[in-house]
Amino acid sequence: MPVQPTIVGQETMVERVWTRLMEEGVEVVGMYGMGGVGKTTLLTQINNKFTETCGGGGGGFEVVIWVVVSKSPEIRRIQGDIAKKLGLEGEEWGQKNENQRALEIHNVLKRRKFVLLLDDIWEKVNLKAVGVPHPSRQNGCKVAFTTRSRDVCGLGENTLKGHPDIPHLARKLAGKCCGLPLALNVIGETMACKMTVQEWRTAINHLSSYAAEFSGMEDEILPILKYSYDNLNTEQVKSCFLYSSLFPEDHRMEKERLIDYWMCEGFLDENQSRERALSLGYKIIGTLVRACLLLEEVINKEQVKMHDVVREMALWIASDLGKDKEKFIVQARGGLCEIPRIKNWSAVVRMSLMENEIEMVSGIPECSKLTTLFLQKNDSLIHISPDFLRCIPMLAVLDLAGNSSLRTLPEQISELVSLRYLDLSWTCIRRLPLGLLELKKLIHLRLDYMKRLKSVSGISNLLSLRKLQLLQSKMSLDMSLVEELQLLEHLQVLNISIKSSLVVEKLLYAPRLVKCLQVVVLRELEEESHRVLAFPGMDSLRKVIIRKCEMWEIKAERKTLSLTQGFPNLSSVHISSCNGLKDLTWLLFAPNITSLEVLESGLLEAIISQEKATSVAIPFQKLKSLRLHNLATLKNIYWAPLPFPCLKTIHITECPELRKLPLDSQSVSRVEEFAIKYKEEDWFERVKWDDEGTKFRFLPFFKFFGPEWQVTYVR
User: Are 404 and 381 in contact (CB under 8 A)?
Assistant: First the structure.
C-alpha cells in the first residue's frame, strides 16, 4: 500500500510495534492516539512489512487482510472486505446472511495463517461474529488495530499491575457478577482499561445501586438475559417474576410469603380457594426456577433467591427498559436515613426501602399508583405521618416487619382503603389503631413476635380477613379472641400461640377454626385439670411447637381420625421442657413429618411406645432430621428397625440411656449423605448393634462434636 513520507522518529515506532507483534505469545496489538498523529500511516507500514515478508516466503503468513472499520463497525461490511481478499465474492455470496458469511470466512481462515489489520476502531469488534478465528499461540495468527480510544485497547494484565489495590477491587467487582460468564466477560472488557482506584470504586458503586447504567450492561448483558423473560408463557408469570426483584441482593425469599404478596397484589385470583392459589403460586415458582430466573436454595427448599445480574435485568424491565426508573424504586439495603427524593411520585408503582436506617416516613407525595411499599427492617423507624398514608390510597401491600423502634401507627391507616396485606411482626406496637379495624379489604395480617402487643380486640371487624398470624407475641389466644375469630367467615389460615389449657380446649372444639390451624405454639400450659392434651385430626396443621407444658400425655382423638387420617400435612414438631411426657406415640398419625426435635424432657422413655401403638403404619417414612437432647430416661426411639428412606441427620446429645438406634443393614437408602452427630465419646462406645452388617454400614457416618457444640432452641 502507498505510504506518506516518513515522519521523523516513526521508523523507531514501526520497529517497536513490529517487534512486539512478532513476539511469541503476542497475538493482538492495539495502537491508540488522537486523530492525525499517524496511526493509519503506522499501520500501513506494518501492512507493507507483512506483505514483503509473505512475498518473500518468510514468517509463514499466507494472507494479510486490511479493513477500515470507522465509527460504526458494521459486521456485513467488514465481512465484505475480508471476502474480497479471500476471493469469496459472487452472486451466491451476496445472498447469504451474516451467520452464513461468518461460517464461510471461518472455514477458509481456520486453515490459513493470517494477519488482520483493522484501522480506525471506535468500539469493540466481535471477531466471532465476523467469522475470524481468534488469534492464538496454536494458530500463529496476528491482529493489529488502531483506535483513538485507549478504552478500546485496554489490557487486563497491565491494569491489574497499575495499582496494588486494583486486584482486590477486581475480585470484589467480579463477585458482583456471581459467576455469570456473560457478565464477567462484558464487565471485564469494560474495566480492562481502568487504571485508577477511583474508577474501580465508582464501578462497584454503580453495580451496587443501579447496574443498568454500567457500561455494556444495557447493550450486551440485559437484552440477552431478557430472552428468558420473554419466553415465559403468561403475563401473570412475568409479573410474579418482576415482583421478586424488590428484595435486596442475595435475599432468601420464603416461597409461601412470596405467594402471599402475589395474591394481595392481584397476580393470583383472590376469589379462588387459598389451596388453589398456593398451588398455582408454587407452579409459577417452579416455572421460574426451571427458567433459571429464580434459584432454589440447596439446604432449605422452601426458599428461593435471585441471581444478582438477573435481578438487575428484572429491575431494568420493570422500569420500561430503563426509560422510567421511578416506576420501580428499589433501594433496599442502601444505607438510607430518610425516604429518597423522587422527582415524579405519580409514576411510582412499587417501592422497596427495606433494611435501611430510615427514621421517619413523612411528606405529602402525589403517589396515586403505589401498590407495594416494603419498609421492613428499618431499625430506626419511629414515625409514619398521617399525611403520607393519605397519599397512597391504592396501596395493597405494606410490610413494616422488623421495625423494632416503631411503637405506634396513626389512626389514618384507615385511609389505606385498598390494603390487603399488612405485616407488623417484630415491632413494639402496644395496641392496634382503631383505624386498622376499618380496613375492609385486608385479607392477610401478621402480628408475630410483637412483645408489647396487649390486645387485638375488635379484629372481628376485618370481615375479609383470610390469614391471621399471632405467634410468640405478648398477646396470645384467649377466650374472647376465640369468640371473635369464629365471626370471621372468610378465615382460612390461623397461626397462633396459646398459653392456657382452657383456651386450647375451647379452640380445638371450634371445628371451623380447627380447619384453619397451620402453626400452633403451646407454651406454659400448667392447669392441673388438663393433664391430657387430645388433638382432633387436623388436615391443615403443618407445624407444632410445645414448650414448658406440664401435660402427661398427648394423644390423637380416634373418633376424628376416620375422617381426616390424623395430621397428613404436619411436617415439623418441636417439643422441649415438657417434663410430664413419657412418649410421643401420637406421631404415628403424622405420616409426613420431616423434622422432629425433642429437648429437655426428663421423663420421656420412648418416642413411639410399643405398648400404646395401635396403628400398623410404619412411622417416619418422610423424616429428614431427628434431634434428641438432654433426655435422661429415653431408652428407645422405636422398638424395631425402621427404613428411614429420607433421613439425613440424627443429632443425639445427653441421652445416656439411649443405647440402640432403630437401624438395620437396610435402613437409610442414601447412606453416603447420612450423618449421626454426637458429642459424648462414652455414649458412642456404648451403642449396641443388631449385627455386624448394621454396625459396619453406619459406623463411618458417626460425627463427633466436642464440648463447644451448643444446642439452639426454637424461639
Answer: no
